[in-house]
Fold Glyoxylate/hydroxypyruvate reductase A.
Amino acid sequence: MTLNVQFSDTPKRWTIFEGPLNDAFKAQGLDVDLSTDHAPETVDYVVYSPKGPVQDFTPYTNCKAVMSLWAGVEKVVGNDTITQPLTRMVDDGLSEGMREWVTGHVLRHHLDTDLDVNRAPGDWTPHMPPLASERGVTILGLGELGQACAETLLPLGFPITGWSRTQKDIEGITCLSGDDGLIEALKRAEILVLLLPDTPATTNIINPETLALLPDDAVIINPGRGPLIDDDALLAALDLGKIKHATLDVFRVEPLPEDHPYWHHDRVTVTPHIAAETRPTTSARVIAENIRRGEAGEPFLYLADRDQGY
Ligand code: NDP
């Protein structure tokens, strides 16, 4: 039986995902008609992006699962028209991308490489950063991506503290949870990495009170989501010199408007939501595996928890 899979993302993404998805379906032995314009009632699975045309799933009466191409599902997890299982993206390409982006920015701030990049001709002033073992890194969010980053930073010597909703036990990492755990995690955060999802419980988790707990001259790196940060509070902390630098990849409004103060602040680095892209080849394998599972009556991988919102 041929399965109808609806691809719902931008036309540009269709051009780069169509081939890898079809290859992955074949590799799984699945007979799939992948299209952007199936009749809704004939669709077996929807490959979903918040930027795609399908946001009302009411007509998709025979759809067995909605599969997000994004790891963060805040834009879809509350969609009441989805009565089917909703999966999010967890794949090696995303994890590798995030490991590299976070490690690069941690090392930039740890080594203060900006001093050398911007060094004037003839300026021979040396600088000696602490060793990694002397620089505490805290990661808020110890899920797929937070753990991948922790595993990469740990062998470099950084003492890693992680904070999550449920208590974890990961070798080499100080794992904390709960309100007291957050306080302790922030106190240790000379470099703070935000890899929490955007949920009602995490909105503005970086606010005047939590910023005050950070060591002086702390650096904040946010590849998580924009609403994790109270922007006015962060800008005030930067202006006061409490926070040395913020590297921000995600924002409440994207693209970040040109007149936003973040673009114009000397100690803010803006990147355009590029920390980790969903890569066609690796993510296609995850989608195909999940469709295989759906057809075999096996549990789907990476189900979003609608009660928790991620
Ligand atoms: P996961 O769901 O695997 O991990 C989320 C982590 O956050 C978990 O450790 C979870 O705790 C923790 N968490 C959630 N809510 C709370 C809370 N209220 N208090 C404390 N901890 C909490 O997600 P991923 O690691 O795959 O992705 C993380 C986020 O990264 C995504 O939601 C997305 O927003 C962002 N992202 C950004 C990208 C970019 O390019 N900038 C690309 C991909 C993702 P527990 O382990 O107990 O469940």
In short: The first strand starts at residue 3 and ends at 8. The chain has two domains: 3-91+278-296, 92-270. The chain has a mean pLDDT of 98. The longest helix spans residues 92-111.
